[in-house]
Please model this.
Amino acid sequence: MVTILFLAWTLGSVLLTLNVFSPLAKRKISSFPAILFSYSAGWLIGDLLPQWILLNIGILLFFSFYDIFSHPIGWGGLAVHLIGWCVLILRLWVIFNLPQRLEKKMEQQLGNSWNNASSNFRPPGSMQEINWHSWLNPNVVFDDPRIEIIVDQEFYQENDLKLKLDIYRPKGSKKFLPGILQIHGGGWISGSKKQAALLMSQMAVQGWVSFSVTHKLSPEIVFPEHLIDIKRSLQWIKKNADKYGVDPEFIVTMGGSAGGHLASLMALTQNQPEFQPGFEISDTSIQGCVSLYGVYEFIEPFNDESIYPAKAKLLKIVCGGIPDTKPESYYQITPANWISNDSPPFLLIQGDTDALISTNEAKKFFHILKSRNIQDCAILNLPLVEHAFDIFPTLTAQCIVPTIERYLIMIHENYILKKGAR
Model:
């Protein structure tokens, strides 16, 4: 019995390792639970590798008490596990060297604007510079003595429901600091405003104010109620700009997955009355957008050639039907339909091994942005990177987040230059 358990665990470890490099659940044939498991396993094992190895060492010690290593099968299984760990470590080595590739890609796309942008944060350049403490204990990002985090500020109430946001800002009384409106992911049906804490904390150190907001969730509501809630939060932020030291004229949106989609719509539907019922005259202008592994395609999941049953099922809940029965909702929810010549700059980031969202979505959306001559736009496709890579301060996040921070600083510096020229 112990031998069977050992073999099953070894085989499972092999499959989970392969899943990190190529998701085993396929979008066209797999159910939503299968895709979600494939993504979760790939993300956790790939990015939380130290914890995964420690867990496996503990399991190996457990089997050692049953003399599994007195047989050739035990030593063979141990060799398989060691090879798997080495392969996963090689993946992290690729991630560790990723910042150099990102630097080159951003320079190619943005030129002097990128080269002239300054940032006090750098990705780890050696093993000693990796923040192992935060990797092993993600909560340390909330304990930076240079910043203050103000939680659960109510920005909207509807009957018994209260929508709240968290604020990350530098300590000390400062005014007119650039702002970030952070929108959580979760497929429009779940999520936490603690997502992206690493970036918000580090940007607060550099003198930015971040607002991490919530919104009502499906299936209790259908689109565009999610977007309307986010616009309500922006209205509250601008009304309270003096109190929290943020510049109401420079706020960028940022989010991942469904949050990346909503962040994109916030940047593209500025001051659209149909998404601001009851506060139509409020200024909801946005100066830039960073969308991580965002969702941009909403009709294709229903097409025979590009069918994605799990996503289509989710969209039926979010939009209250299918494209044939709810054409207006699907038009409104598609970011590409709102791109104009006045749209702000975008940074799109997508992992190549994302189990949930195809890289083609970001590429097509970026192509449309470029065709409309939107300035300072860039796209980064990340090799061997899974969905939600920035949730925890892992090595992957530590290597990628500084590029996002530098991009934010770049568009703010460009904004100041243009403002001074007027």
